[in-house]
Automatic annotation (TrEMBL), chains A, B:
The lineage of its organism: Bacteria, Bacillati, Actinomycetota, Actinomycetes, Streptosporangiales. GO terms for molecular function: DNA binding; DNA-binding transcription factor activity. Keywords: DNA-binding. Residues 1-69 form the HTH merR-type domain. Pfam families: MerR_1 (PF13411). This is MerR family transcriptional regulator. InterPro entries: DNA-bd_dom_put_sf (IPR009061), MerR-type_HTH_dom (IPR000551), MerR_fam (IPR047057). It comes from Planotetraspora kaengkrachanensis. The keyword DNA-binding applies.
Amino acid sequence: MRIGELAALVGVSTRTVRHYHHVGLLPEPVRLTNGYRDYRLRDAVALARVRRLAELGLSLDEIRDALADDLGRELREMLEELDADLARQQEAIGARRARLAVLLAEADLQAESAVSPEMAAVLRDLSSGGSRFAAVDREWLALMDTVADPADRGRVLDLMLPLTEPQALARGHALYERLDELDDADPADPRVPALAADLAAHMPDAMVTAMIGTPADAPGGGWLEAMTAEVSPAQAEVFRLLVLTLKDRT
Amino acid sequence: MRIGELAALVGVSTRTVRHYHHVGLLPEPVRLTNGYRDYRLRDAVALARVRRLAELGLSLDEIRDALADDLGRELREMLEELDADLARQQEAIGARRARLAVLLAEADLQAESAVSPEMAAVLRDLSSGGSRFAAVDREWLALMDTVADPADRGRVLDLMLPLTEPQALARGHALYERLDELDDADPADPRVPALAADLAAHMPDAMVTAMIGTPADAPGGGWLEAMTAEVSPAQAEVFRLLVLTLKDRT
DNA sequence: TTTGACCTTGACGCAACGGCAACGTTTCTA
DNA sequence: TAGAAACGTTGCCGTTGCGTCAAGGTCAAA
């Protein structure tokens, strides 16, 4: 047999056969005088053996190990491991499909699939003012929504919901405006501690504990540093004081 | 933010961030005077967007397309396609696990997992004689067992089973011996046509139609050529006559 | 001052082949 | 009998999504 016949017989490409030679999975057969490889039936059997394991999902390395150990206990362990692995894959795919189903159902209602639809609603409410600072806050919330795992995502939403009530929104807008006014103010400006105190008063307890409690190295952890870097010195000072105040509150 | 902070914030490696820059998924931010990349919150938002789609299983190319088309209809189609793809994967994995379960159950009984256990039993029966020719036949059957898809595999077994009955086995061994005797005989030897006729008489009808009916380009198709290449000229001639006889029989 | 923890670009590695180049051999066909 | 088609040979690059050096430059703390 020449390589093409062997390949057709077993149902693989000639490239695959040569690849198996290259990686030592299949012994090189004798050559004819013209240099062509000359295969026997036993080569086809060996190749079919390899393919059988490959199609079960074993890597070529694993197949080599399994065949080297002459089809003993080793193979059985590998197969069990493989089965566990496949089970995990099935679960993972199932979870992804579940998330997809949610996304697809919601996509019928709105196309803003960059964030979850609940969070999109929250962001719409918050964005009714033109505050430059509100924009930073919105970016931050959008980030939290994408970065957190689904369980935390619900918690973030719960934290935000009280702030979307009409009175809270009005007060929030006023606070945003006061923050905007500090854009090029001095950090020692008297309005700074006043605003920090009012902000602290405006924040629900649950949000406070969430903000203080987030470990610095978890995803979404360096929030304070990341936000202060975005704002002016006076605004950063507001944050510093705010965090101090909140820490006292716990 | 520097690249490490950004990466930690979103929960990826710095290498991943740079990779996304490299492939154009994430715009390069401004550089500080020392050459460090300087990220803003919106970069984190963009990165998190990308990750969100990536974790759903979209390829980076698809993510680029989806984001370029500004989160419209395109994305929805891709998600649906992805869902269908995942469904197919689930099915494929299920099929593999089913095959694995069979293998594992049988591995308790015997370790000869290169061929299916039923075929292993058939091969044991056939191998009771020391005929060199029987060895070729056994290789061939082992190959058919691994190469054919599961549906065909059962058919092959059905074909073989009649030959494993005691009387059939005895006659089969006698035929093998007569084939072995032709190892270095002349193709014109009078024993050749006689043996071909006896072989034809020995083969069940179902096996005949299976052998004649297999298309030459299907997997396992070139069986005649592959087998004749393994044997001596006189034995090949037996085969030629055998096939002629069998073709008449259909 | 010297670690040590960052950052930079660049390049190789990975799994399992597919595909091409550039060339020789065999086989079919006109 | 010539030429084309269909095989064979080796070798190298491309794929995916980064991980992992290598060989530096930068910056903060001890």
